[in-house]
Amino acid sequence: MNSKQAPVPQELWHAQLFSYLPRYRVIVCNTCRYAVPPKAVSRHLKEIHRILRSARQPFLDWVSTLALCEPEEVIVPNREEFPVPELPVYTGLRCRRRDCGHLCLTEKRMKSHWLSAHPKENCEWSSVPVQTFFRGNLLKYFSAPSRLSEGKVDEDGSLVWRFLDINWAWQKGASPPPDALKSGRILASPIASSRNFGLDSMLVGLIHHYQTSTSQTIALNGNNKLFWSNTVLQIAQGQSFLMLGVLSIAALHLAYLLPRQRREWTIRANEYHGQAMPLFRHATAYPTAENCHAILLFSHLLILNTFTSDQQDDNLLLVTRNGDDTVPSWLYFIRNSCSMLCSVWDDVEAGPCNDLALEWEAPFNVNERREKMISSELLTAAPARNSTLAWSEDVYEVYQAAASELAFALACLDSGHHDSFSTWDALRVWPMRLSDDFVRLLKQKHPAALILLAHYSTILRRIDSKWYLQGRAEALLRTIRRELDPHWHVALPQLG
């Protein structure tokens, strides 16, 4: 029996490519996910879909039978009809001027609007989901102000979710406005996610918690909150290991927020993490233009996951002696992310994670005088070469190099940089610079490595307010004190 499907009759081709919306009297391209003006159908078929002239005629014949209107005549959906299922939803901005309501996607465009339309008033706007039927010169956004809630608790305690469909337009071949993808302002399409993708209420709830709460704790500033809340989920829809990473960090965040349910949420988080890691390792072995953004993002979430995980509380940068790893897995992946992605780095820089990649290359300001002073203090902690506690020459060399890097890191905190010191700064200022030889000393729990790691814990204290790092610096220092012979305690920073 022939297993091949019968070809679609030519007269039905239009049903595969277009959807007719009689309510609005428009046709929407199912691939591009925007409406095509009646007079532009032939050009759209030719230029966008490369359909030959002879094959375009059935489409044009079908269009001629429809009651279509011109773009300027299309009615705007009412509150009950928004959002239109056939169109993607974007996170937009609405002008808060009472008699205005102008809609756009970027702060730059909104500020330009205020300068031209309301030059004598303070610029105010709010974030809203928006859609548009057409693109290009016909682009015009619309919204529905009464249905902007992301979720609310119903009387029976269940959650009512809105705008949580992770069936992202760009994953289906759509082409969102250029400024939307660049700014990370693509939001989900309407609510069919749990039905379309088999998501149970637990998963939908975790995604919602990540989008509305956890993501805000990861963002460095207001400028990239939308990136972590929306763009990350957009990318995760196409890469299951990243979606599992999102679910894991959201569950860990709930474990932190709900102490009585900590064990249950931690177990769930570990399950998601365990499922994600083999997929992530496979992706890093075969990076592509499609998965490179997810690899970079998962590397970041892996750090937070490790910081938060109960079994790592007292270790952090330490590796168990019996383990096969030379370095902690999170440190390995974050240190090697650039080399792993070098073959597709152009795609990273051209995509939505460009700003995130650049954060790892931002320069530090350093007080050079303070750097020399700290370096001298750290070097005096090493035993004299003629003492009974002397190290090998190789260890002295490794220690001196790592101490020099740590002095630079500590001096950065005395140069005014500490006010904006972030989690990523704390990692790239020293752990990212460590040599493999020094990390091997960490695995051996050699005094040379533990002394410097103890001083590094003072940097971690600067970001101790983060939920995923609370108490980690002190726990790490206590662990180091237990591991070291009391003779070395004088070289360690004080607790508290």
From TrEMBL:
An example Gene Ontology molecular-function term: DNA-binding transcription factor activity, RNA polymerase II-specific
Superkingdom field: Eukaryota
Pfam families from the UniProt entry: Fungal_trans_2 (PF11951), OrsD (PF12013)
InterPro entries reported for this sequence: Fun_TF, OrsD, Zn2-C6_fungal_TF
Name recorded for this polypeptide: C2H2-type domain-containing protein
Organism: Cladophialophora chaetospira
